[in-house]
């Protein structure tokens, strides 16, 4: 309950952080606007931006004259091409790596499809290392790598991914973060922090920072593939839970009796009714993966009644669980990501119908249902934000 | 995403706030311990405590000699008998008011049973005014009232209780906060802020500050009477939701089909299976209210098989919903308050059995189930904390 006390050094650090966050999240901004937004005086802002310029994190330049008289306010820009992170997304079917510059710009990217049966720690680390090497070779010589962020399709223990469980890719307990940190040290010539997060959590962070939920502080990002997870932002902060395992909404039970067996060992979990297997089985399809899901959504749109029935059935259960989340969290927005995007778009009327009958009127009025603006890149962009977090919290220390 | 920048005036205010919070939540504490806990130097702490002494919020006195040599560190105490709030709890069956001193001490109290059929805004305001007048008459002449906090058994719109909905006491939409503020101004001779919160939310705050969940930053406090609500603390902060209506877990649907009609208009809500009516009906009892519930719990303990069956049935559904909350929130603790306390104590094995089969192993290991240390006073103590919040955030301004 007790807030930590503060020193003048904390104050300087927090103000440098506030300025860099503005530049990172809002893009190029004038000193005058920084002064107004942060409520600090002009000379303080000038001193802070000068320090950030000296650290190579931002540049300042005169603005093109907008017809106003007097000396124009300097424009402060993030050093996007110079300061960057390596963002990695390890999905059930795909591995992606990108160089993402300060300001959230994807500068360059590599990706490959994978088979979930052939996943091993070695193969994943090898793929990421090869991508990192290739991205580094293509980067300009002055580029500075400030860290790596990883979005992982499973449960992540520890902020550096000390132990990762990936039931849907057959991982029992793998030291992903350490293995990646060691392997990437070879690429970059020195050890740099590797931060690992759950893909739904990072999708939520990304949509909150730069996507559908900009300005919304109470947001649930649902990510679906074989399993269903959520990144839940409460009052602007990601819901972590006491171990960092919060948001396992796929294991919300929706049936007391007669539920299907779930991979977690329980019966009747939500993901047994709305996950990839549930949709494909309801549609009478063979195969797995996002492509199989998309083909059901497409078939339904083209008039295939089996596919339509499957989509409506899954949409009904999607609405059932979403209604629960609305009543529990009173969110401003729920975003349907991964395979749920297609299910939602194909069964939106059904989902909304369930919400109309099963949510409290007060809660229903406030909530908007959306799909991710960053589409399938939301976890990747969130991984970049994870890697930028240290720099943004303490710009001069982390830039060293 | 952007943190506000800070000035030296913010810094002083936040340090005064940090010191007063320590004294309020930890009780009497020496200057030396304040120095250590807050990481500030001795002279800064001395200056801050002197300001708080001048404002009449704390006293400083030499400690009784502990056998150590040298000048003993001054002991800083909250001015509990002088600085106080009026805390009010408006429950379904009972209205309570108390004078609660800085440091969370209940100095004096009044209460009365009520019938939920006879509730009206006028009768509630009249009762609270009479209690406030009586408490004031009994208070020492130097006592300073710094505000009123109210725990209300329903949905509260606005931090000052601009509109309150109490479906379980027949309130559609009442301006409780304004009516109380006007009425109490007559008692205290001037307008003082009245803050109103949901009783489950305030129970959570109280158990977090001074009860079972001290030191736990991820806690769910469940409150049961006719309805079921939750106060949910995520990372140390109360989950509000976008309108302040978060935590309506009683309206989590637990049946897709065949659910009972709920007061909210939907079917199959959790509270239709575990609320007061569900228990009394399952036990074949007439009557309503906490006493009727307690008589079922007692009968079960004495061997009445109908009462036992009813308790186990409700306990099973209690475990079903609690398991969902464990998977969604990964909390460190869940506290069963109101009528759920008796249900949980009478069916603990059943509740825990359901948790064993329906929660993720990682989540199950971390969660503890508890009953409120503050017992039925949790919402009342939370109401006092609500009223102290302004003073704690800005001690000198609010003490004026």
CATH topology of the largest domain in chain A: Nucleotidyltransferase, domain 5
Helix content of chain A: 40-55%
CATH class of the largest domain in chain A: Alpha Beta
Structural class of chain A: alpha/beta
| Major sheet summary line of chain A | 5 strands, mixed
How much strand of chain A?
Answer: 15-25%
Low-pLDDT residue intervals, each spanning 5 or more residues of chain A: none
Proper CATH architecture of the largest domain in chain A: 2-Layer Sandwich
- Tell the overall outline of chain A: globular
Evaluate the radius of gyration of chain A. 23 Å
Physical arrangement of strands within the biggest beta sheet of chain A: 6-5-4-7-11
How would you describe this structure to a colleague?
The structure is a homodimer of 400-residue chains. Chain A is of the alpha/beta class. Chain A has two domains: 83-201 and 378-399, 2-Layer Sandwich (Nucleotidyltransferase, domain 5); 215-372, ATPase, nucleotide binding domain (Nucleotidyltransferase, domain 5, 2-Layer Sandwich). The first copy, chain A, is 44% helix and 22% strand. The first copy, chain A, contains 15 helices and 16 strands. Chain A has helices spanning 8-26, 31-38, 42-54, 121-138, 176-188, 199-210, 271-274, 276-282, 290-301, 305-329, 339-346, 348-358, 361-366, 378-393, 395-399; strands at residues 29-30, 58-62, 74-78, 83-90, 94-101, 105-113, 144-152, 155-157, 163-166, 171-174, 194-198, 219-224, 228-234, 237-238, 333-338, 368-370. In chain A, the strands form four sheets. In chain A, strands 6-5-4-7-11 form a five-stranded mixed beta sheet, with helices on both faces. A five-stranded mixed beta sheet of chain A has the order 14-13-12-15-16, with helices on both faces. In chain A, a hairpin with a 4-residue loop joins strand 9 and strand 10. In chain A, helix 9 (290-301) runs parallel beside helix 11. The longest helix of chain A has 25 residues, at 305-329. The radius of gyration of chain A is 23 Å and the shape is globular. The model of chain A has no long low-confidence stretch (mean pLDDT 93). The interface between A and B is large, with 71 and 71 residues.
